Amino acid sequence: MENREKKRLVVLGGGESGFGSAVLAKVKGYDVFLSDFGTLSDKYRRLLEEWEIPYEEGRHTPELILGATEVVKSPGIPDKAAIVQAVRERGIPVISEIELAGRYNRAKTVCITGSNGKTTTTTLTYEILRQAGLKVGLAGNIGRSFAFQVATEDYDWYVIELSSFQLDGMFDFRVDVAVLMNITPDHLDRYNYRMQNYADSKFRIIRNQGPEQRFIYCADDPVTCENLSRHELPMQRLPFSAREGFPDGGACLEAGLLKARIGDGRGFEMPVDDLKIKGIHNTYNAMAAALAALCAGVDGACIVDTLRTFSGVEHRLEAVREVNGVLYVNDSKATNVDSVWYALESMTRPVVWIAGGTDKGNDYEPLYDFARKKVKVLVCMGLDNRKLTDAFGDKVPVLYDTASLDEAMEAVERTAEPGDVVLLSPACASFDLFRNYEDRGRRFKEKVNALGEKTEEGE
After folding, report:
1. Is residue 2 predicted with pLDDT exceeding 70?
2. DSSP string covering 29-70
3. Which residue from 140, 151, 214, 387 has the least number of CB within 10 angstroms?
4. Reported pTM
5. 283, 307, 331: which is the final residue of a domain?
6. Distance CA 56, CA 38 (A)
């Protein structure tokens, strides 16, 4: 048996994923060291010290890193980073937190990926399993670190949201129930602007699956369907669709009913109008979550109960409040074009649209028709809005170019009228002006609530 005590594991990145990886490595007897090129938050600096894990911040010291037996890279660090290239040149394996945690995990896993809908589907699946009484943890891109929970908790199931970056570092990890929501252009700047590279990354979720595992996927997503033939598919397959049913198991819409069934005959049906979360994108999310829950052994009646009460997640088409007859909606999590397409598609009021941030190689053409028909004002919010202004300058009646949230909200207040909706749906990453999309969404909500309170005081 391997002697883990002699292995040196270096963790690059000191956020939730990196901290969790370091704790798991410490618990399992590795010689562990954490290195963060930026500044650690007070929270993680304190936790690392409590766990007596050596670390550095503000630099990557080669002498402390390049002697590693293995490196765990946090998902936000690109492969082109100099220290990552140096590690690879030494022939040192680079893995993800998920790969490390999978070596020691004894629970079953539902893992969910996709360009859009994965956070809602992950949260909904977790809620169904939790309300059904299963001993379940929530991990990955949301919740606490998977590695930290493997080190400190004892669950029977994990529901894990996985980004393409996390999947890129997975090699031996095997998913019990894999869910692929869709594949649309996103993060192409990390994949040499090649869509196939990105699609290949998403399909890593079924890597190592065999006949005992399940693969849930959207049969209406063309990129997913085009890529099925490129992969071995020995697992049980459960497609979902808004258009057709599947005799061997899957989920569909039929005569106003959401129907779901898996291979052993268990399933349910319910009126789609009974879903608390609305819109076709949320119907897809509900179908995927329902199939995953059935695979985990949850009874159909329990699934229906949760689908009727689940109200969605923060930062995804989240109605903040109405001020002077204007509805403000926080869709900060919409960091790609396809997410914004669904947001604009669901709007029934004239739209004052706030967009912008760090472009990820976006092609905005799919939004042009909605921009012409639904958007009365586009407020571009970012340090460099040239791509947005070039794309939409001749497609919306009014366009503002702003470089801060304060400037953007001033433009909104000048133009929004009773009956309008102000939609923050950026189509871009947040890193030019904000820490992350959560920070962007929360600061937007703070501005909206301050505006509402000011209006109420003046009445």
Report:
1. no
2. T-EEEEEESS---HHHHHHHHHTT--EEES---HHHHTT-SE
3. 387
4. 0.78
5. 307
6. 10
